[in-house]
UniProtKB/TrEMBL annotation:
It comes from Marinicauda pacifica. Pfam families: SAICAR_synt (PF01259). This is Phosphoribosylaminoimidazole-succinocarboxamide synthase. Keywords: ATP-binding, Ligase, Nucleotide-binding, Purine biosynthesis. PANTHER family: MULTIFUNCTIONAL PROTEIN ADE2, SI:DKEY-6E2.2. GO terms for molecular function: ATP binding; phosphoribosylaminoimidazolesuccinocarboxamide synthase activity. Its EC number is 6.3.2.6. GO terms for cellular component: cytosol. CDD domains: SAICAR_synt_PurC (cd01415). One of its GO terms (biological process) is 'de novo' IMP biosynthetic process. Transmembrane segments: none annotated.
Length: 252
């Protein structure tokens, strides 16, 4: 399928015009970034793995009634998605202390949280995506109170589903980031759906037995074997064959 002109290039994906109105083609790159783009690298095969993992999870979420922008996978690196009006917020769901919450609150990494915690961050690279409250969100009209309620409910539902999905594969879902977008149906009333991607780039995933990191922290912390860890996630989920990394490397 031929894609249209390039509309946007981000850290991990390129968006092109889709074949039909209201659609986009998302191309997953091999670029890896961390610390607000201060650390960069190219990890061969990462884009293929993230495309396949995100396809699998989004398809599962669609099947249980969680609306997403995902339509179908086009090839090893690209998928067809609905065009959305992105809400300028990152929604982070935390189950275990790790990353910034451990540092902010003086928690020991790996400590189970009393309950799942949802945090909002303003999407702005220049400001390094600061954490914001519901008061900020409504005051600056980034989202309505109803939008916030919908994002909270959907995010917790996604957390419940994915926690079980990953646990069945011997993986602990420590935390993850979601993004939402607005779509306008025939009555021109906006509704929120999941957008962006769900992959080891946007989740913290630890082996249940060993606590070995199987996510982007391997890149952030110079632990090595990043794509191998992503391929192991795909293998455990039954997405790719045992030779996942070589399969990923074949799709340039």
């Amino acid at each position: 399928m031929s894609r249209g002109k390039k509309l946007y290039e981000g850290k991990a994906k390129i968006l092109y015009e889709g074949p039909e109105p209201g659609t986009l083609v998302a191309h997953f790159k091999d670029d890896a970034t961390a610390f607000n783009n201060k650390k960069r690298a190219t990890l061969e095969g990462k884009g293929v793995l993230n495309n396949r993992i995100s396809e699998f999870i989004m398809t599962q979420l669609n099947s249980i009634g969680v609306p997403t922008h995902f339509i179908r996978r086009l090839n090893m690196r690209e998928q067809l998605v609905r065009e959305v009006e992105i809400v300028p917020l990152e929604v982070v769901v935390r189950n275990v202390a790790a990353g910034s919450i451990a540092k902010r609150l003086g928690l020991e990494e790996g400590e189970a949280l009393p309950r799942s915690i949802v945090e909002f961050y303003y999407k702005n690279d220049a400001l390094e995506d600061p954490m914001v409250s519901e008061e900020h969100i409504t005051a600056f009209n980034w989202a309505t109170t109803q939008d916030i309620d919908d994002m909270l409910a959907m995010s917790l539902r996604v957390n419940d589903f994915m926690s079980g999905l990953f646990a069945g594969a011997g993986i602990r879902l420590v935390d993850f980031k979601l993004e939402y977008g607005r779509v306008y149906d025939q009555n021109d009333m906006p509704r929120l759906i999941l957008a962006d991607e769900i992959s080891p780039d946007s989740c913290r995933l630890w082996d249940i037995e060993t606590n070995e990191k199987m996510d982007k922290d391997r890149f952030r912390r110079d632990l090595g074997n990043v794509t191998e860890a992503y391929a192991e996630v795909a293998r455990r989920l039954g997405i790719m064959k045992e030779n996942g990394p070589s399969e990923a490397n074949e799709a340039k």
